[in-house]
């Protein structure tokens, strides 16, 4: 697929994720996707004179009622929950899970709003590929999570704009304090209150004999309506300025289908767009 291009000098590539990977070797995607990026960088290495190719990726919006879509979003990041990370350096992601289009004539998996997607990708390209300073391309990131018997307190690395939600956050309740426990289970963690950089969540749905073993956010195929997720950067919400990118799309623990751990060769339906810079 890329062989005709490997003698060209390009700055980066955009991977527009295809929905077939939600089923096609999904549980291997956390390995095969980073491996594909490594392979592309090796292929372009000579033409790039040793410069590392920047790779951007887009997460998927709604098309399912199963865990397949949050699973593939997680695997897109090599099971880290964010990019760039140590396994996927010089990469960036544009969040699209808050841009659903249920009435799209092409089906909800093909939302018509590409302007926001393109804008979010451009912010990441400017910051990661071109090294521009002071470009806000990343959403609120949790810098600390404090656990008490009655609540969790999440402190973010920037000011946040919060909308109340009963179920966007979920906690894993476990009697052994481990998310690997076979009896561990996920329950909603309602937002109780918040201040500029901190959000407090209720843990009351865990029984008195259980501890909170893990926390996750927006773990569903369609977590929120159009630009209406509960946690955004406070700097410029909804204005298609720098924080149209800044929906918190982070997932805060490893997963597996047997307990609280949710947890590919690449599918031909994953579309490749190469940018020539």
UniProtKB/TrEMBL annotation:
Species: Dissostichus mawsoni
TM region positions: none
The name this protein goes by in its record: Sialic acid acetylesterase
InterPro entries per UniProt: SGNH_hydro_sf, SIAE
Single GO MF annotation: sialate O-acetylesterase activity
Top-level taxon: Eukaryota
GO BP annotations listed: carbohydrate metabolic process
PANTHER family membership: SIALATE O-ACETYLESTERASE
Lineage: Eukaryota, Metazoa, Chordata, Craniata, Vertebrata
Coiled coil: none
